[in-house]
Amino acid sequence: MYQSEFTAFMKDFLEKHPEVEQERRELRLTWWDRKLNLEDLRRWKESRLPQKGYAYQPE
Asked: Which InterPro entries is this protein grouped with (predicted)?
């Protein structure tokens, strides 16, 4: 089965550095596997100001 050079490199790298996988899992929990607070999300959307079409145009 074909395996690209990059895939072979990553497999070799991860075998030599198992701490990278643990760090990746911890960072994933920080940014992606979080529960959303719907009240905070609603307040954030309501507090946004409309953006001008061209931000550098003087009024």
From this structure: DUF3460
> Which among 39, 59, 55 is positioned nearest to 47, based on CA atoms?
39
Structural domain total, the chain: 1
Is the CB of residue 35 less than 8 Å from the CB of residue 42?
A: no
Instruction: Name the pTM for this structure.
Output: 0.48
pLDDT of residue 59: 67
52 within some domain:
no
DSSP conformation letters of 5-50: HHHHHHHHHHHH-THHHHHHHHHHHHHTS----HHHHHHHHHHPPP
Q: Are 20 and 14 in contact (CB under 8 A)?
A: yes
